[in-house]
Write a structure and sequence with these properties.
single chain, 146 residues, alpha+beta, 5-stranded antiparallel beta sheet, 7 strands, 30% strand
Length: 146
């Protein structure tokens, strides 16, 4: 898969911009303007992970970076467990976290459609300020390889 952010073919980024504009067409002009001037979006969610009949609350923070105007890609994701979990449960949650990251990035490069879908879903639902926030810069992120 081609990395849209570094593609040399001028038509590819324009197709990407048009697709993103279609996904965000229902947003207010104010929010669209803020998006155009933001370097990144931090999406926060609080899923409950079911393991062996039990439930463990988690916090997930996903950063999407605008690498070129209207061209967004997955940057990083942090998953924290909000409750007690055994070592075995922590391993299952770690595997779940890896699968979540693979939703956005394949071994061949970024997967663009899930980024579109996540951003559009969060923005269109009007959850601004509660589940995501616009950032002025992307924080430094350390990634650990398992």
């Amino acid at each position: 898969m081609i990395d849209i952010a570094s593609a040399s073919n001028c038509a590819i980024p324009q197709i990407y911009v048009a697709a993103f504009n279609r996904k965000t067409a229902s947003l207010s002009n104010t929010l669209r303007a803020r998006l155009q001037h933001s370097r990144a979006i931090l999406v926060r969610s609080h899923p409950t992970i079911s393991i062996n009949g039990g439930s463990i609350p988690a916090s997930v923070e996903t950063i999407f970076e605008q690498v070129r105007p209207s061209i967004w890609k997955f940057r990083s994701q942090i998953i924290d467990i909000d409750g007690p979990a055994s070592k075995a449960e922590q391993q299952i949650i770690h595997s779940w976290a890896v699968e979540r990251r693979q939703h956005y990035v394949s071994p061949d490069g970024p997967r663009l459609e899930p980024v579109f879908d996540t951003l559009a879903s969060v923005l269109e639902s009007g959850r601004e300020g509660r589940d995501f926030m616009l950032l002025s810069r992307v924080p430094a992120v350390m990634q650990r390889n398992a």
